[in-house]
Amino acid sequence: MKKIKVLAMALICAVFSPVKADEGMWLLQLMQEQNLADRMKAQGMKMDVTDIYSADKVTLKDAVGIFGRGCTGEIISPNGLILTNHHCGYDAIQQHSSVDHDYLTNGFWAKSYQEELPTPGLTFKFVERIVDVTDLVNEDIKKKKVTEAESFGAKYLKELADKQLKKSDLKGKPGISALALPFYAGNKYYLFFIKTYSDVRMVAAPPSSIGKFGGETDNWMWPRHTCDFSMFRIYADKDGNPTEEYKETNVPLKVKKYLTISLKGLQEGDYAMIMGFPGSTSRYLTESEVRLRMDGTNIPRITVREARLGVLRKEMAASDKIRIQYASKFASSSNYWKNSIGMNKAIVDNKVLDAKAEQEMKFLEFAEKKQNEDYKAVVSKINDYVARIAPLQTQMTYFSETFRSGIEFAGYTAVNSSVEALAKALDKNKKKDIEKALDGLKETYAEIHNKDYDHEVDRKVAKILIPLYMASVPADALPAFYGTIKDEFKGDFNAYIDALYNNTIFANEKNFNAFMANPTVEALEKDLAVQYAETVGNKYGEIAGRIGKASGDIDLLHKTYVRGLCEMYAPTPKAPDANFTIRLTYGNVKSYDPKDGIHYKYYTTLKGVMEKEDPKNPEFVVPEKLKELYATKNYGRYALPNGEMPACFLTTNDITGGNSGSPVMNGNGELIGAAFDGNWESLSGDINFDNNLQRCIAVDIRYVLFIVEKLGGCKNLIDEMTIVE
User: Fold this and answer.
1) Nearest by Cα to 465 from 533, 540, 402
2) What is the pLDDT of residues 422-438, one digit of tens each?
3) pTM score, whole prediction
4) Where are the domains of the chain?
5) Looking at CB atoms within 10 Å, which of 16, 63, 103, 436 has the fewest?
6) Does residue 668 contact residue 270 with C-beta atoms inside 8 Å?
7) How far apart are CA 486 and CA 493, in angstroms?
8) Pairing mode, if any, of strands 117-118 and 199-205?
9) Is 582 left (phi over 0), alpha (psi -120 to 50) or beta?
10) Which residues are identified as catalytic?
């Protein structure tokens, strides 16, 4: 009875009126329930909250979607034109680039629909509908169709989503899928109906010297001068329906909502609002869990990525071919390498551990006052979980960074499945099954030796990471191939790796073809790459199993703790942690003072680009055409009143990864910029929000349009937008 009663409680986080609500990645469907409109209007919002989101009409929500696998994009014309960040479009730009057509270096500008480039695998997703399914989940728990612990699981949530989709009027409509997710650590559940468009074409991208200006050095830093944007377009069939892939007969999508663009400018204190898909925050962690993040995730990630990035930097600098092949991989890896460094530093500098400890003391006092035994015990139980999981989490991070995202050759998932299928087919000796399995092995070989893989670069990465992994983890975390190195190669890592990369079935086309001409189980069993993949896969399963066993009921403990915190902080509402679902954050344009004697104003200009220019440093090269435009002050209508060209600006909006590309809007819901980064001093913000230091860095829409029109020569794109001056 006790559990059911707890599950039936209204979530206090979601229903009380706000006292202060600057922090928060707010759920659109709860804005009115949480009375956020009054606070937003007090800070400068001029529109009605129902024009931001309403279940009954077209709103701003319908102009924002998921771009690709992990970013946000917004629609900026009636013809499906998407604005997102350059770093969000980087995969696509790299995919289309070659030494002969180096769009990474030179940029890409489509002057007509015919010049826009199909990009296989790239999608854009709109949220069609949001439904509260908390009561359905609680009813299933009550009727014992699922346990409370199982209600968090992917299997149950998929079954729930599929069941609701079948009952919906959206069933069977092109591109529609359903996704059910827990919020507030499982105290609430929502179902999202998603519409996916799979024909998305590249339209415009500035040279990386503009779109990625500052590179690693400026990443997560202010002041910034990066024009971090790219443009794409959604295509659909003649009726506006999604198709599963590119079709020549598809046409630009006539959207139901797009954003108007404002050139009116911005001043310190102006209202700023961001809508997007923040990936992940962990605001409800205990002190011990923050330490686990620092030591069990961030430090191993920093260690392994630093080693790998060192190899890639050297190889990319020596070859244009390799630079293009590894551009996207390098950018993705370095981004969260630096983020992990900054997060650990900010946790210490901003005294996050002290804040968490203080919160736990207050929570214990609250629990004792309430005489709630679950609340009294929950932090202690979470601490016990951390003690069990910490060494395993450290091992798993080292493992994943080394064998899942570090070394690419002989990836264990693909190799193991295709080799196992072939071995079974050879044992049964059925021609049809053998031919099918051999086709699968061909796919695995092609997957390894894809256009963005260089065998010699990866060999050099392996020679750094394989010894590093051994030095970083206990002996029982080592895959069995380390025994092969010790016994058969006398501990010589380089000799083993050379044999792996030179002599195995998957090493090169000659070896692979020789095996395919005479495939045998014996050859598979003796092959070093097959042994390597098998032992790596086995060790992953072993570590993951130990983590699962040690985790216990951690999801239920978090559910209890979050519910208790919401009660403790009432009547102030709390937002749920980010989980890559659509959110709204509001704030203001604002400068900040990171340290004594240092003041950062809220905007930068093109002048700063010229001041940072360093022709000897590829991160700070300035294109000649941009220098010409600067010299002649040929800014057109995009200049500031004093004649300067705005570049980037700061707001107090609460964002994180996944918000990249999100629209920054003024009080009228007009687009004024695109969010692309956070500031170094507040990289602990995913764990603990700091009102004084937290800043969102955005590229000014005027800088974007200036580059599109004056440098890219794409007046055609400007003409299809609705611009307010």
Assistant:
1) 402
2) 999 999 998 899 999 99
3) 0.94
4) 287-399, 412-549
5) 436
6) no
7) 9
8) antiparallel
9) beta
10) 87, 228, 660
